[in-house]
Write a structure and sequence with these properties.
The chain has 72 residues and is mainly α. The chain has a single domain, classed as 30s Ribosomal Protein S18 (Irregular). The N and C termini lie far apart (38 Å). The relative contact order is 0.22.
Length: 72
């Protein structure tokens, strides 16, 4: 149905009680370099994208997600 698998099933999870400790879900919104994916790739609505961005930043500060991935 969707070309991008992220668009298919993560929109509902963002609406539910998602918090910064759900690293397995939040890592789906981060690329291989550790950058937050844009809305056009995630398929989220504006309010959902802002929530995910805020939670990813909180998880980074809490050292649950890295700021940069794979940099030598």
């Amino acid at each position: 149905m969707y070309k991008n698998p992220i668009k298919a099933n993560l929109g509902e999870e963002v609406n539910n009680s998602l918090n910064y400790k759900d690293v397995s879900i939040l890592s789906n919104f981060v690329n291989e370099q550790g950058k937050i994916l844009p809305r056009r790739l995630t398929g989220l609505k504006s309010k959902q994208q802002k929530k995910v961005t805020k939670l990813i930043k909180q998880a980074r500060i809490a050292a649950l997600l890295p700021f940069v991935i794979g940099k030598n």
